[in-house]
Amino acid sequence: MKAKLNPAYLSAYAIVLGGAVIMLMPFWFMFVFATHSDTDILSVPPPMWFGDAFLDNMRLLLGRLPYFWHNLGMSFYVAIATTVLNLFFCSLAGYAFAMFEFKYKEYLFAGVLSTMLLPAFLGMIPSVLIMTGLGWMNEPRALIVPAACGAMGVFMMRQFIGSAIPKELLEAARIDGCGEFGIYWRIVVPLITPAFGTLGLITFIGAWNNFMGPLVIMNDMQMYTVPLALRSLSGTGQVPWGAISAGSAVAVLPLLVLFVITSRRLIEGLTAGAVKA
Amino acid sequence: MAHLSLRNLSKRYDNNPPVIENLNLDIHDGEFMVFVGPSGCGKSTLMRMIAGLEEISAGELHIGGELANDTPPAERGVAMVFQSYALYPHMTVGENMGFALKLAGKSKQEVAQAVGRAAEILQISHLLERKPKALSGGQRQRVAIGRAIVRKPKVFLFDEPLSNLDASLRVQMRIELSKLHKELGTTMIYVTHDQVEAMTLGDRIAVFNQGRMEQLGAPLELYERPANQFVAGFLGSPKMNFVPCQLKDASSSEITLSVAGDNRLVLPSSHTIAARGDITLGVRPEHLHIVPLEQGFRARVDLLEHLGDAEIVYLELAGSEQPIAIKLPSGGHGLKQGDLVGLRPDAARAVLFGKQGQAIRLQ
Ligand SMILES: Nc1ncnc2c1ncn2[C@@H]1O[C@H](COP(=O)(O)OP(=O)(O)O)[C@@H](O)[C@H]1O
Ligand SMILES: [Mg+2]
C-alpha cells in the first residue's frame, strides 16, 4: 500500500512526530547525560549524543549514595510485593463484585470507587499517624500493605471478569466439584491473564515511581527507594546531574524491560471486552 | 441411577411472585423426563434447583430417596449440560471432560480411561487435545455431553442443549440423545421450549406455564388428551384450532353448538355435558374435515400452504380473529382462495374448553 502524499496527511504525520519527539526528549537526554560529566552537561549547547563517562557517573553516584543498590532492591521489593498483592486482592474483589449477588453490593462498590476521588496527598498525614501507631514507620510494609488493593484495580477486574467470564462457566465448575476458592483459582485466574498483565504493569509502574509514599514513611537512607534516593542528591550543594541521570537510567531500565514483555498483553487487556472472542 | 421426588417445591426471588409454586412431581429411575413450556415459565429455574445452583425457597427435593435440599451441587450426583455448553476455554477437550474426576482425586490413569470411554461413545476421541474454541458447535455440544457422562451421574440435566445448533444438527443430536439414554439407562431431565423435542424425546412430559405444572404424562397422552387449553395449544404444529362457540343444548347423546353466530353444529357425545354458554371448541388441524355447507360450520379459504406431502389450508371464520388451519393430504381437494366450505370436527377427537380453560371431552 502506498501512503497518500497529500498535505493534510503529511501535516498530520508532522504533528504526531513532533509530539513523539517532545515526549521522548527527556528520556533521550537522561540517557545521554548519564554518559557525560557535569561540565559537559552544563556546556552550551548540551551534548546530544552518548559520551563515555557512564562508569564515572556511576562511581560518583555510589559515592554519594552508598546504599544505592540497596535502594534499588527496596524499590524492587516494594513494587513487586504491591503488584502481586494487587493482582490477588483486586481480582478477588472484582470477581465478587462481578459474579455474586449480596446485600448492599452497589453501595459497597460505590464506596470502593469513591476512594479514587480522594487525592493521595490527603491520605498522607493519616497514614503517617496510623503507621506510627502500628510501629511500621521506616518499614517497607508501611508502603506495601496500604497499597495492596487499589480501587482502580478492583474496578478494572470487575469489568473484565464480568465481560469475559459467563456465569454458566462457574456453575459448571461448581457442579464439577470446585469449591468457591477453587473456582477462582482454576477457572477465573487462568481466564483473566490479559487483565493481570495490564493491571500488573500499571501497578508496578505506580509503585516503582511512587515518591510521596516513601518520602513520608522512610527515614533512613538505607530504606529509601530509588526515586527518593536520587532526589536526595539534589538537596545540598552542587547538583551532580551526571550521577542523577545515570541513576535514573538504571532505575528506568526495569520498567522498559517490563513494558516490552507485557506490552502486547497490555494492549489486549485494554481492548478486552470490546470484542468477544 | 436414582429417582427424584419433588414435594411442594417453591422458588421465589425476594418479594416477587413465585417463579415455581408448590410443585409435586416424581421422576422415575431411568426415565427421560422433559420439562416443556414457553420461555420464562420457570423450567430452567426448576432444573437449577435440582442441580443445586438455586436455593430451594420451600418444599423438599429428594434424589435417590435422600433429602437433597442442602446438598452441595457436586454431591448430588447430577451432571448438567448447559445451553451455552459452558466448556472451560483454557482447558483441552480431554481436560474439560476429566475435570470433575481430577477434582475428586482420581488418578491420572483412571481419569484418562473414563474420558477415553466417554469420547468413544460420542465419537470425539480425535478431538481430545483441542481447545474448545477450535471446535464446531456440534462438537462442543458433544464435549459438553461427554463431560457429563464421564462423571457417571445418577441424574443428567439438560437445559435446552440443542437450541444453539442448526436445524439438521439438532435432529441428529436428538436421535443420538435418545440412543444415549437407552444405552446408559440413567435418569435424564431435559428442559426445552420446543414441543417437537419434547414429543420425540420424552418418556413423560411435564408442561409448565407461569411456574405451574399444567399437565404430566406420556407424549401421546398429552397430545390426545390435553387437560386444558394451554397444553392443547402448546403441543402440536400447526397449533390446535380454538373456535369460539356457544353451547346451546346438551343431551346424553349429543350437544348443539352455535359457531360464529349462525352456524349450528350438532356433535355426538357420550355423556351429558353440564356447561352452557360461551365455550371453546378445540380441534387439531388433522381432525377437521371439509363437508357440504349444511353439515358443518362455514369458513372461507384464505391461504394454502404446500408442504409437499400435505397441505395446510387456512380459513377465515366470520366473527373470529384467529384463522382456522386444516391439514389435508396434498392435492385433489380442488380448493382455492375465496371458496366457502363447511367444516366439521371429528367428534371423537374434538375437545371443549370451559371458561377456565379446563378440557371437557365429548367422548
Ligand atoms: N435471579 C433472578 N431474580 C429474579 N427473577 C428471576 C431470576 N432468575 C430468573 N428469574 C425469573 O424467573 C422466571 C423463570 O425464569 P427461567 O427459569 O429462566 O425460565 P425458562 O427457563 O422457563 O425460560 C423468569 O420470569 C425470570 O424473570
Ligand atoms: Mg431457560
From TrEMBL, chain A:
It is a multi-pass membrane protein. GO terms for cellular component: plasma membrane. The keyword NAD does not apply. SUPFAM superfamilies: MetI-like. PROSITE patterns: ABC_TM1. GO terms for biological process: transmembrane transport. Residues 72-262 form the ABC transmembrane type-1 domain. InterPro entries: MetI-like (IPR000515), MetI-like_sf (IPR035906). Gene3D superfamilies: MetI-like. Keywords: Cell membrane, Membrane, Transmembrane, Transmembrane helix, Transport. It is found in: Cell membrane. Its main location: membrane. Belongs to the binding-protein-dependent transport system permease family. This is Carbohydrate ABC transporter membrane protein 2, CUT1 family (TC 3.A.1.1.-). The chain crosses the membrane at residues 12-34, 76-100, 107-131, 143-162, 183-208, 241-261. The keyword Cytoplasm does not apply. It comes from the Bacteria.
TrEMBL record, chain B:
Keywords: ATP-binding, Cell membrane, Membrane, Nucleotide-binding, Sugar transport, Transport. GO terms for cellular component: ATP-binding cassette (ABC) transporter complex, substrate-binding subunit-containing; maltose transport complex. Pfam families: ABC_tran, TOBE_2. This is Multiple sugar transport system ATP-binding protein. It comes from the Bacteria. Residues 4-235 form the ABC transporter domain. The keyword ATP-binding applies. One of its GO terms (molecular function) is ATP hydrolysis activity. It comes from Chitinimonas taiwanensis DSM 18899.
